[in-house]
Amino acid sequence: MFFHTTVAYLSASVLYLGSGAVARSTLDGFISSETPIALQGVLANIGADGARAAGVESGIVVASPSKVNPDYWYTWTRDSALTFKFLVEEVAAGNFSLHSLVQEYISAQAVLQGVSNPSGDLSTGAGLGEPKFNVNETAFTGPWGRPQRDGPALRATALIAYANWLVDHGDTDVAVTHVWPVIHNDLSYVAQYWNRTGYDLWEEVDGSSFFTVAVSHRALVEGAALATQLNRTCDDCGSVATAILCFQQSFWTGEFIDSNINLQTSINRTGKDANSLLAAIHVFDPDVSGCDDSLFQPCSARALANHKEVVDSFRGVYALNEGIANTSAVAVGRYAEDVYYDGNPWYLCTLAAAEQLYDALYQWDKLGSLNVTDVSLGFFQVFDPSVKTGTYTSSSTTYTSLAAAIRDYADGFVSIVEKYTPSNGALSEQFSKNNGTQTSAVHLTWSYVSFLTATRRRSGDVPPSWGASQSKDVPTSCAATTVNGTYVSATVTSWPAINNSTSTTNETSTGTGTSGSATSSSTKSNTGSVINIIT
Ligand SMILES: *[C@@H]1O[C@H](CO)[C@@H](O)[C@H](O)[C@H]1NC(C)=O
Ligand SMILES: *[C@@H]1O[C@H](CO)[C@@H](O)[C@H](O)[C@H]1NC(C)=O
Ligand SMILES: *[C@@H]1O[C@H](CO)[C@@H](O)[C@H](O)[C@H]1NC(C)=O
Ligand SMILES: *[C@@H]1O[C@H](CO)[C@@H](O)[C@H](O)[C@H]1NC(C)=O
Ligand SMILES: *[C@@H]1O[C@H](CO)[C@@H](O)[C@H](O)[C@H]1NC(C)=O
Ligand SMILES: *[C@@H]1O[C@H](CO)[C@@H](O)[C@H](O)[C@H]1NC(C)=O
Ligand SMILES: *[C@@H]1O[C@H](CO)[C@@H](O)[C@H](O)[C@H]1NC(C)=O
Ligand SMILES: *[C@@H]1O[C@H](CO)[C@@H](O)[C@H](O)[C@H]1NC(C)=O
Ligand SMILES: *[C@@H]1O[C@H](CO)[C@@H](O)[C@H](O)[C@H]1NC(C)=O
Ligand SMILES: *[C@@H]1O[C@H](CO)[C@@H](O)[C@H](O)[C@H]1NC(C)=O
Ligand SMILES: *[C@@H]1O[C@H](CO)[C@@H](O)[C@H](O)[C@H]1NC(C)=O
Ligand SMILES: *[C@@H]1O[C@H](CO)[C@@H](O)[C@H](O)[C@H]1NC(C)=O
């Protein structure tokens, strides 16, 4: 197993054998039994060899094997990227058998980038915003909520993680020839189109989505850093990233994140939406210099206040949550007003609520303190009604008791998932708000991935930094800076053997993650087989 356990969390559980301790030992058992099921659940949904992916092209991820009610037998750019963002972490943690799957994914994305579709084609970049394709790598031409602009950003993030790993392992040339051309198209898309409306991650609302904007900023920041590493250009990535971060601030209402603004679709919602919890975990940087509000990091006052607002918005709407104290975790869905499949809790939303808090605990532990501010006071008062604003260092009793209580609270969300997971471990998209039985798509890839990422963070196992601390400054006035990008068809075939040994000459990555340590003693060299990339 490649899961690391931090000393800090071990000591916390030893010191605080409160009411959470018994629940936690049960939860540990669930996590160990569910982990291999979830990983196999992910792999089963990926072609060409996945057990539930018969007929799916190599490297293509199906959202779910469900073909009717609902029909999810498609490949979404978003779901696929989030899946491979996780699988690249597994490679970095030492599971080198996943190299081939990651490479098949990259080769398949190079193909999909060139498929003309109802959103457009590659020549203008517009086709990159198409949300989903048929599993045989042809365009889906039916009506849909399109474009969805988070896809290119998330795909860039997944590929940048792999490219950074290659650089760290002596394979910079492979990152340049095989991965960068695909990344570059996606970065060009983000830099050109971020300031236009598009559909949100739930595919319902045309406007500006917090999730999309947050992951767009991240992609350009880490894309600019990678370009420097690879001696390639990412024209104006930095200045556009700053413009996006500036715009991102406008989603903050003062009390919570309004997930959908600039609405082109009429909706009647509060704006409290798991969109913002997912944004927090997907821009999580383990190496922040502080819990800055501008970045909406998991430990920031804004993201914590928002966490409480979003979670509380589900307390009154599901029968399943009735009778649960306001200080305990509840089942979480997309947004309280949801009516899709009757509007139920989702596994991936409930797990995102847990993951944000595990991320925050990691950040506080690393920073050695936590701040209670006017903005986050309400969040912290759930765990200690008498807590006051101020800075609490990790040696203080206030810090240790808050951290222990927040960890128990986070575990509570995973325990809800445990409670509503059948004994075979299968995870669908939703579970009934009335009685917890599973509903909507079976074996949802994203549900499995969300279980795996949340529980890895719980173990203190985190991805590398993406450079958040260097990109947190917000200009005094916002510019709508965009850059018309260049788009070049990438053909990525025939991958060379990858040098799995850690570079001893230099650590070139911006990463500081714990993954990958002491996992490989391989010193085999790159055999240098044919690299064939045509641009
Ligand atoms: C790296 O690991 C993968 C998976 O184990 C293996 O296929 C590949 O040959 C390794 N690379 C080298 C150069 O040994
Ligand atoms: C490593 O990846 C393979 C798929 O390539 C998977 O079957 C296996 O369970 C993974 N190993 C661990 C320890 O997660
Ligand atoms: C690809 O899949 C779509 C949807 O199932 C189908 O309509 C189309 O005929 C397939 N195309 C090819 C070339 O197999
Ligand atoms: C474009 O950026 C400007 C400046 O931040 C902002 O006012 C506007 O709402 C943005 N529009 C969209 C659709 O992103
Ligand atoms: C960087 O790229 C430029 C243009 O492709 C090239 O002239 C230069 O030699 C490269 N520098 C290094 C250090 O590889
Ligand atoms: C909006 O939702 C609120 C709360 O559900 C409801 O009271 C109100 O009538 C709705 N307004 C419209 C225009 O649908
Ligand atoms: C707490 O606030 C201080 C002052 O604003 C800041 O320097 C520090 O980085 C913050 N610490 C955390 C953990 O956010
Ligand atoms: C619990 O939370 C709900 C929803 O936010 C709120 O309506 C209710 O007043 C709270 N109850 C207590 C006892 O604080
Ligand atoms: C659970 O509730 C759903 C509606 O949310 C209903 O369709 C189903 O029949 C119920 N199942 C049981 C076992 O009560
Ligand atoms: C970008 O391209 C559009 C047409 O696609 C053109 O109208 C616009 O002037 C270009 N902007 C820049 C900065 O080149
Ligand atoms: C593989 O990585 C090791 C350690 O950085 C390095 O010494 C070796 O030259 C690399 N091999 C190749 C073929 O790049
Ligand atoms: C390692 O990288 C740093 C920063 O890029 C550089 O200053 C240093 O010279 C490098 N060391 C070696 C041995 O290449």
UniProtKB/TrEMBL annotation:
PROSITE patterns, sorted: GLUCOAMYLASE
Keyword Amino-acid biosynthesis: no
Catalyzed reactions per annotation: Hydrolysis of terminal (1->4)-linked alpha-D-glucose residues successively from non-reducing ends of the chains with release of beta-D-glucose
Keyword RNA-binding: no
Keywords of this entry: Carbohydrate metabolism, Glycoprotein, Glycosidase, Hydrolase, Polysaccharide degradation, Signal
Secretion signal, residue range per the UniProt entry: 1-23
Record-listed E.C. numbers: 3.2.1.3
Biased composition (Low complexity): 499-529
Enzyme class: hydrolase
Region of interest called Disordered, as start-end residue ranges on this chain: 498-535
Membership in a protein family: Belongs to the glycosyl hydrolase 15 family.
Protein name: glucan 1,4-alpha-glucosidase
Phylogenetic lineage: Eukaryota, Fungi, Dikarya, Ascomycota, Pezizomycotina
